[in-house]
Give the backbone structure.
Amino acid sequence: MNQKPKEYIHGLLFQANININGSHVHDIRVHNEEFYKRVFKKGPLGLGESYMDGMWDCERLDEFFYKVLSSNLDKRVRPDWDSIMLNLKSRVLNIQNISGSKKVAEQHYNLDWKLYESFLDPYNQYTCGYFKNTDDLNRAQEQKLDLICKKLQINSKDKVLDIGCGWGGFAKFAAEHYGCHVTGITISDEQIKYGKEYTKGLPIEIKKQDYRDLDEIFDKILICGMIEHVGYKNYRRLMEKVYDSLKNDGLFLLHTIGGNESVTSTSTWTNKYIFPNSMLPSISLLKDYLLWKIGITLVHIMTRLLWLGIKTLILIGIKSKKITMKDFLECGIIICCLVLVDSVQEKTNCGRSLCQNMVFLRVMSQYVK
């Protein structure tokens, strides 16, 4: 066998203080020389699949991967063909479109519920807990759910939307403890089947729906551990849907795993065996789409302040008797244009605002010379 792959893997692991066939719990034992070629060719996917095939083992896998990741070996490894192609595919195509999104539901979330029941808490939380003054997982998950409800300021009159509701854990907690109505949407048939039975008797609706098809208005909206499946090419679409589905005084909370660096895809191992077509968002990626909507909102606020300012100038001009009909008409035209701009920004019918301002202008015109 060509020694290059073996020498390469030895040298790479040595940087993380991991020895081949060493005596430490984090050292690996190689049982098949093909291991080196497999990892050399396929990177993280080759590492995982060679372990599945019994080519190597380790007494403490957690310690092994801690050493690998804390030494940044994942960033030092040579790029393999599978990783290059996955990265290219994620840049050229929208792999998290409606049809692509179904893949993770079919492969991951539609597995037998008994698998998840074996390690999840009673509220079926598949995201991190809030370990404040506790080491108990169940308590930490309840504290996380309660913190979400408090941040969203949920009350019994609220209509709440949970995008990517999973098995209905948040919906059940919020309905039981805060008395609100919760609509949970997911694209997993197994989650819907379980969630409906799990939340029976509570003001909860669990339904199959893609976030892109939302057409209702809610007081509060939550995305908890779902945006990892959305993909950077769909962030703007998601934020637009959240904005359009939220009341003017509503609240939105986003809970996610975050990456320190911006990426466009996940690892080949994760993509094949865990979360197909997934990727971890970074603050840098998310802020562009969050700030885009904030920017639109600021323009909306400034537009309204501007037309109120023009109205004030008209009143001052009338009182001081210094405004002419020409000035008045120019101000009226500007106000009407601002109303139209505002209605486009807010996607609302401009008729009411236009009529209100026309009435104002009609009344004020009587006092202009």
Q: What stands out?
A: The longest strand covers residues 246-255. The radius of gyration is 28 Å. The mean pLDDT is 86. Strands lie at 28-30, 56-58, 159-163, 181-186, 204-208, 218-224, 246-255.
